[in-house]
């Protein structure tokens, strides 16, 4: 959900998104807003939730209007302690070559193999 309570997804065109990793499952957009607002105009804060449980997935996206402000937030907040955890703040990466996010950690996307069997059984000869 957005910090600003929009009903639909925000217009993120022309914004600079930061990925905030290692937040607690109880951290809210209202908790993050004062931290990030110090460094510039925050357009949106989004904390993804698990579809089944509704619980936070342990990471957030903070969007700024200006790149310089986003960069300043990365420099000042990366490694900072929030709710007893050291958060990691970096520019978000999008697209097919971006890294995947799994439960608040970055996991590399492995290249898909073509024509290989996923079976553990040895091939008959």
From TrEMBL:
Keywords: mRNA processing, mRNA splicing, Nucleus, Phosphoprotein, RNA-binding. One of its GO terms (cellular component) is nucleus. It comes from the Eukaryota. InterPro entries: Nucleotide-bd_a/b_plait_sf, RBD_domain_sf, RNA-bind/splicing_reg, RRM_dom, RRM_euk-type. Residues 16-94 form the RRM domain. SMART domains: RRM (SM00360), RRM_1 (SM00361). Transmembrane segments: none annotated. It is found in: Nucleus. It holds the Pfam family RRM_1. This is RRM domain-containing protein.
């Amino acid at each position: 959900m957005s910090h600003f309570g929009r009903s639909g997804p925000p217009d993120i065109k022309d914004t600079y998104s930061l990925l905030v990793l290692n937040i607690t499952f109880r951290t809210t957009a209202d908790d993050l807003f004062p931290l990030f607002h110090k460094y510039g105009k925050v357009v949106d804060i989004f904390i993804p939730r698990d579809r089944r449980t509704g619980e936070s997935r342990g990471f957030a996206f903070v969007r700024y209007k200006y790149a310089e402000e986003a960069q300043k937030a990365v420099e000042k907040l990366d490694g900072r302690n929030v709710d007893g955890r050291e958060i990691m703040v970096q520019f978000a990466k999008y697209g097919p070559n971006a890294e995947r996010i799994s439960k608040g950690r970055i996991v590399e996307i492995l290249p898909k193999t073509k024509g290989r069997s996923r079976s553990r059984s040895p091939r008959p000869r």
